[in-house]
Fold these 3 entries.
Entry 1:
Amino acid sequence: MKILVCIKQVPDSAQIRVHPVTNTIMRQGVPTIINPYDLFALEEALRLRDKFGGEVTVLTMGPPMAADSLRKALAIGADRAVLLTDRSFAGSDTLATTYALAQAIRKIQEVFGAPDVVFAGKQTIDGDTAQVGPGVAKRLDLLQLTYVSKIDSCDPQKGEIIVERRAEGGVQVLRTRLPCLITMLEGTNEIRRGAIDDSLRAARAEIVTWSAKDAGIADLSKCGLKGSPTIVKKVFAPTPRSERATLIEPAKTAAESADGLVGAIFAKKASLESDMAKLASGS
Amino acid sequence: MIDEKFDAIVIGAGMAGNAAAYTMASRGLKVLQLERGEYPGSKNVQGGILYADMLEKIIPNFREEAPLERHLVEQRFWMMTDRSHTALQYRSDDFNEEKPNRYTIVRSQFDRWFSRETQAQGAIVISETTVTELVRDAYGKVIGVQTDRRGGTIFADVVVIAEGVNGLLGTRAGLRETPKAEHVALAVKEMHFLPRETIEARFNLHGDEGVVIEAAGTISRGMTGMGFVYTNKESISVGMGCLVSDFAGATETPYGLLERFKSHPSIKPLLEGSEVKEYAAHLIPEGGFKAIPELFGDGWVVAGDAAQLNNAIHREGSNLAMTSGRLAAEAIFQIKSRREPMTKQNLALYKKTLDESFVVKDLKKYKDMPALLHTQAKNYFLAYPTLLSNAMESYLRVDGTPKLEKEKATLRSFVKERSWTGLFGDAVRLARAWR
Amino acid sequence: MSDATAAPAQSRANQKKELPEHFRDYKHVWVFIEQERGEVHPVSFELLGAGRKLADKLGVELAGVVLGAPGEGTRAAVKEAFHHGADLAYLVEDHVLADYRNEPYSKALTQLVDAHKPEILLLGATTLGRDLAGSVATTLLTGLTADCTELAVDTDGSLAATRPTFGGSLLCTIYTLNYRPQMATVRPRQMPMPERDATREGRIVPFKADLDEELIVTKILKYIPDRESSKTNLAFADVIVAGGLGLQSAENFQLVRNLATTLGAEFGGSRPLVQKGWIGSDRQIGQTGKTIRPKLYIAAGISGAIQHRVGVEGADMIVAINTDKNAPIFDFAHLGIVTDAIRLLPALTDAFRGRLSPHARDRLAS
Ligand SMILES: Cc1cc2nc3c(=O)[nH]c(=O)nc-3n(C[C@H](O)[C@H](O)[C@H](O)COP(=O)(O)OP(=O)(O)OC[C@H]3O[C@@H](n4cnc5c(N)ncnc54)[C@H](O)[C@@H]3O)c2cc1C
Ligand SMILES: Cc1cc2nc3c(=O)[nH]c(=O)nc-3n(C[C@H](O)[C@H](O)[C@H](O)COP(=O)(O)OP(=O)(O)OC[C@H]3O[C@@H](n4cnc5c(N)ncnc54)[C@H](O)[C@@H]3O)c2cc1C
Ligand SMILES: Nc1ncnc2c1ncn2[C@@H]1O[C@H](COP(=O)(O)O)[C@@H](O)[C@H]1O
């Protein structure tokens, strides 16, 4: 099986700071990581490969530094890495991103063979849109399975796959044909630790690096800022909630504190008491 | 198992490890470097001041690319009581030179850069991998390492141990003893972020100029330790460290001390309005010359903090680490060039060059200092700062008391606290240890 | 928005509206009415409330878009759309649309947009809404602002969609100036629920989409509703008790479970607990875990890191128990108590049990 995984390098949001005056992101020194959601996709891809043979290619669009994330994916166990990097991609919104990624996947198809499954993460922690997956699927005319919690079965020979997909009030069990695009739900598997030889291989691996031209992207007007219909007009810090929490003074005993807290909760919102009484009585 | 064999394996991607790996790789050796952190620098802590000279000897043009924060133009030493500080301050425009001598750095960034450079020289660096054991042959010669990853053992002609102060691996392998509690300090440190304009205004800085404050006194509650404030571009590093042995008997916690240091009236305004993002705790080897363990053996050498090469009196560590790493690498390269084996006898070359360098010479100079400060902590960190502060206050306060009376009272306070012989002894001891 | 937010290009931020001729007849505000198994997702009503305001401001009509199988449920959804503020409803009835699948839904919605040309198209940021919106926007080659928390109409009539970025540390306002429709998805429980008016009616515009079950590749083999599975359902729970590292041990976490059991609530925790194996990953709350919107959220020994915060901010009431009065959780909790959770939790369980038991309530009533 040929499997492709789209991963994105993102700033570790735990360490992001906002300049208090200019309201810009202070990226200096903020370490980058593989978008955590993408690791669930990568692990699922590796499992399919381990089961059916074949190879896993990871693809990212980003600055040259994004090669670090690709190398990391190789060290985890991916077989090949493609970095799509070009100044003309700067400022891409999701539509422009999906255009570039889809073109690159077409090129990958040409050079390394057509993927049976394309994986993406559910969403990124910086863009946080969950659109790039569906967008890429649409552009490549791939069947789309988002929020997949489990791959029940896959038959590369028959070109068929059955997955469980999270819907709002339950789980859909869907059967579709390969090739398809899957976005994996978080918490569905645990990313493996590569072996030491994976790391050695990753450290030495040649990362396939393509510019827009290399990837066969002719129409640069569809890329980057130019190709992005959305425009960020304003970036600002959220107004901090004016009041901090009302603090209940702890009493002498835990029991008294607890009574005080429960009283304060219901004093703040009276309707909660009857709602919770119903819930507590199991009705 | 990995079939291929490396010329050298370096354990750790801190200052010593990077210096060693860079030096060997740039001379064409086949180097594998293993780092336990998520990436080089992710776990490393330093105040931190980078001493340019020692890095220049490894990467001459480092200033062009390295993530340097500010070059230092001013040093403040503060003797503190709970409400005051008495300062010795030095600032000179001479430090605004073309190639400044000292910079503040943020280790997580700096180490990442250093590692990138090392990789550019051809070294292979693998992160998130902990070396769990040294592998020896039947004769006890170290021939490789075992890691915590699948696929186990990797072989090399020589292993450079640069695992930092904890040195679990080295102690486990029986190469040295666990550092004694009175030979290591525990430091806690926070990064306080502020807009660079604010930092520059608060510290009277222009452009990339920087300041260091080092503070000692009652803030350490009678323990051997000190506090520090370092200016970075958009953050201030604030920390506090004390000997581990002192914490053992004390009710004070490192974090408690730091909290108090931060709320000291002289420190608090410097940090006002900042956003705290990083909190780190790390050990510093402070045993000095007498604590240096065996530095080399059959198939191995040890460098940096792992070898206790740290000058606590001058707060120098990274430069000793870099220098020892480089010297180890140069020794290995020489032996390799002569096509000789990495025996203990041959690797003695490392110790020889290290002994001739400032590293061992400086540590030798202060060989009695650690013990002195440890045994006399109450005097140096509680009594004297308080006496000094009282003296300063009395000197400056104009309240109608005749000056002569004031001076007498001050002198009496010193004698009462420490007695004449005590004062004399403290001075002699200090001078002797400093010599 | 992936990179645009990272580097808002100054020049583009000042870009003027120059709507191409062929987009000028795109009019009206549409809200996609999401229904699953005959039940309308409440976010659709919230969107009708927000859409109403936009439509009034623009002086245009508000339409609900209802896709589904012919029958009662679909018709009821149309009625509810009117009751919640829609002037008209586009109704696409087809057996192929019985249950949500991306292929037929995105086809039908795209065809409908091409035929009736809305100026603004809003969907809920649910698993369905996000799945659909991404496909439709890409097919239509227009902009889509995901996960908005605020919608407004600018002076020149453009949709100003505000959304969090970088894990909630910043907000940005995004425009789709020169493309139509302007699409946005909005998180559930972000907008207030509008008043339902059962007397309100509207007109139905039926639309025949070109769909053929034969040509739809993806088949639904089964649907397992959550209430029939033992799966945790944090996302929809009304009361959630959660613990963090402050509980100090897996044993102490039992105190959180006990309280949850007493309350008939769900329990969850911060990410480190999942990493330590104290709780399963399906119980992680926060950015890389579940986003929750309960009526009451009790957080015991959780510091309130930004990644946790973004997952719980939608709760009506957040109650924090933490020993550190400076813990960031007190910045966004509504009620707090600075005390040891390990000691407080058992007492709290007793206190709630006393207060909520039928016995106590009878006494209260009399
Ligand atoms: C608070 C503080 C302030 C300081 N300020 C200064 C200052 O201003 N100037 C100065 O020069 N020095 C300062 N120092 C000292 C300086 O940081 C150290 O001397 C220096 O970092 C030592 O370098 P090293 O390479 O020996 O160890 P480290 O930098 O600690 O590197 C050791 C590396 O080995 C890795 N490692 C450990 N075990 C293993 C294993 N088993 N397998 C794989 N990898 C492993 C670690 O993750 C780490 O990356 C300060 C130290 C502290 C704590
Ligand atoms: C990419 C990324 C994604 C992440 N996603 C998530 C996510 O989805 N969800 C999530 O939760 N985290 C997430 N995190 C982790 C997050 O940054 C924090 O590390 C985490 O939320 C902290 O968990 P905590 O509050 O339990 O622990 P801590 O931060 O250690 O806080 C423990 C708290 O307990 C208090 N405490 C201690 N003892 C007691 C006591 N006896 N009684 C009461 N209080 C006590 C302490 O004062 C402290 O405030 C993510 C991080 C990253 C980098
Ligand atoms: N620049 C990119 N390069 C590769 N994959 C990406 C990129 N941006 C987004 N993706 C993929 O699309 C998913 C959803 O991203 P988003 O729509 O930004 O939330 C991510 O989890 C990735 O798998």
Note: The longest helix of chain C spans residues 42-58.
Entry 2:
Amino acid sequence: MIKEQLPLGFKTQHQVNFDTLITGPNSQPIAALRACANAQGEQFSFICGASGCGKSHLLQATIAQADENSLSALYLPMSEINQLDPEILLGLEQLSLICLDDIQLAAGSADWEEALFHLFNRLRERNCTLIVSANQPPSRLNIQLADLASRLTWGPCYQLQPLDELDQQQALIEAAERRGITLNGDTARYLLQRLPRDMHSLMDLIDWLDHHSLAAQRKLTIPFVREIMQGWQR
Amino acid sequence: MNRWKKCLAHLESELTPQQFNTWIRPLQAEEQAEAILLFAPNSFVVDWVRNNYIKTIDTFLRSICSDTPPKVTVHIGSLKKTIDSPTPSQPKFGHRRSNVRSNERSMPTNLNASFTFDSFVEGKSNQIAKAASFQIANNPGKTYNPLFIYGGVGLGKTHLMHAIGNMIIKNNPDHRVVYIRSEQFVAEMVRGLQHNTIDDFKKRYRSVNALLIDDIQFFVGKERSQEEFFHTFNALLESDQQIILSSDRFPKEVKGIEERLKSRFGWGLTTAIDPPDLETRVAILQSKALQFNNAELPIEVAFFIGKRIRSNIRELEGALKRVIANATFTAQPISLESTKEALRDMLAVQDRLVSIDNIQKIVAEYFQLRTSELLSPRRSRSIARPRQIAMTLAKELTNHSLPEIGEAFGGRDHTTVLHANRKIAELRESELRIREDYTNLLRILST
């Protein structure tokens, strides 16, 4: 039986920046967005890729880098659309860089589509940088407003590829390290062979392992991980 | 480290990266001796920060200040200027300010100096619109008034409007020319009403020499703005000042606009811009390559991109920028191979879209028919026309032979496909509805 220690109740937020991003096969989109954060990129870029391939991480790393360069920047996840109002887009042209994540979630909403169209025009007139992400390329999105749909094709579109197994292993090890726990290659491989391999699931898993390893005061060995994995649900 | 920076570090460790990057990072702070002023881009963000984060900020500041902590307040605006509500855009690229007399400084021309007639690539699809625009630019208020330019998205309507405005100012440096999007016109009018400055607004817009309003379809449902625009329109027309309007459709087809306005839109000249043909697309790509990359684009690359991207010029630009980015990143010259590599994902999506099966499915959905009806022997016009359109699209968008296309449409002869092509080409010239349907379907299938 595992002797549990109650972990302290404070949460540690993990840094999201270019240093914590595993490049893998995505060196080109990463370089393109890094250039945007340094005010040297395209005015508009589109990033697409399946859920969990690192789009949100990349966009937020871009925001953090822009902030370091004293560029005012905002990250807007469309996953929060139910709590938000299109009014949130007003005046954003006063900032230097805007990242809109998961724009497919705004597709089909007439109010949001029109507000995004007007935002696009204002940003373009002010030379503000806009980066948009979605789970599909612009042509596959179900955008009803043709004026917005065509504007989403205006810049280079980069497809983010999922990391291969070695890179995912590395990502797991580094994520564990940032949380102050050691995950060896064998245990990482063991996990990857048994679990969904999108980055959202893997990062949730690391948080969960961190919690249980601290509670049980055990290292993340394969036997320990095997023992506790039965209780893990995403 | 100042107090706000300490507060930021604390919030970054407390909040999720998403919360921090959305609500806290964009705030701009001004530290004063006894206060910290935070500026947010709009009232929504101001309210959100006040409701969700101000307590945490206050508590933290109390914990780090030995004496009275600063009072934190959140306002709309930026450090550059504090405002009550968002201002209309003041384009950076309106380099024509010097042409605007000082007493009109509050009314920028909003013109993009790079949109000229010289940088507009002419082709069969836009030559009439360009010729009319050129004539008007050289004789504003005297030839066609108003000029109404309509056409699908991303075909160059805005470019032509700016080109007219730029040329009017070049020929008449003392002329007051204003380019504005309909949404900006509405926003300015609303502000005029709110701040009791509506008379200034009216005076401003009724005293210009040329008023260029883009995308007038966004006036839809805004009755008060339409009313004001109607009077502005009459005042300008009566004094022979030039009006130029654009929309995505023919004036009479714009729903939600008052009839009296629609009829006035047609008083002058109405001209269309159609999607560019292959040769024009290639010429546009070559011109843009010089502009973006200062280098010639190999002709086979221009044809490769031009053949695959048909719907609008924005998408051509996006593809070209991706190809240039790839070449810059890999430090290799642009070649057909590198182009295919750079556009691989985009083209794979398109290939999935433009099979005969998919054309039949999308055309049937568009005309609210069943696919089986398109393939049936029935010859009533409500089915035959969509079938002919689908056959024409199959010929244009796929590499299938005419017999193969005929076969896929219920075992028809290749001469039926040929006839359908001729018929649709003819109807696209003579019937607006068919032209619009065809353009819409082409856009759905090839973007």
Note: The first helix of chain A runs from residue 27 to 37.
Entry 3:
Amino acid sequence: MNESAHLEYLIAAYAVVWLGVLIYVTGLARRSSALEREVAELRELLAKRPR
Amino acid sequence: MRSPDLTDRILPPAVIAIMLAALYLVFVRVPTDAFQGPVQRIFYVHMAMWLSTFTAFAIVGVASLLYLVKRTPHWDHLGRAAAELGLLFCTLGLATGSIWAKPIWNTWWTWDPRLTLTLILWMIYAAYLLLRSLANEPQQGATLAAILGVSGVVDLYLINRAVYWWRSIHPAVIVDRQGGTGLADPLMRATLIVTMLAFFLVFLWLLRLRLRAARLQDAVDDLRAELA
């Protein structure tokens, strides 16, 4: 078989995997950062509240 | 903010090192398949997706069962996190399989028993996550999803057996239908093991990050309740 035959499929398969993982990681990192900020804000609000 | 523990410090560089080794083996070292040519190299990443998918859904099954018995949020968090990752790797497994099928089977998809059961698996865990987000009562959603999570394990077993029980064009690669190995070359076997390990470590890393996000969500809910 020709060495370059169907090379585009090989590249597409690995690209799809990396793109999928990258999109998930980016979404998860954004979600975690937003939650960390929210925890900090809520703790600050709680600390300011008169007991 | 807590400082990263030992696993958090070790896991990312280990993942990167093993992933680079896997890519080197797949694209530089491994011999080209005599029948399929270079496109056969999709096999390594395709199999790696399924190892993570099966592990993730097995975790969902065990965590769901433990949640139904013990009712502790930890098991629910673990089940949900593993289901999310299982769905990700299942989607990528189906995608890489489809891309590989086109040049080899001359079609993107065929209703082969293993492929059909895998699509059903994808739907089961998509429904699991959908149930969670649509339920009015979070506890009710968690219980219904846990029941689905346990029943999904049956499909995992059927997928594993499909190529032996029914006529299938999907190959049984690791152990073929005659009981031998489908990978004759030792370097091909080594490449498969390293690639599967690399993506399995990615899965473990993402599972830790997803569980941390779940704990942060719990903290937000607790703080909101305290402020209310």
Note: Residues 32 and 38 of chain A are 10 Å apart (CA to CA).
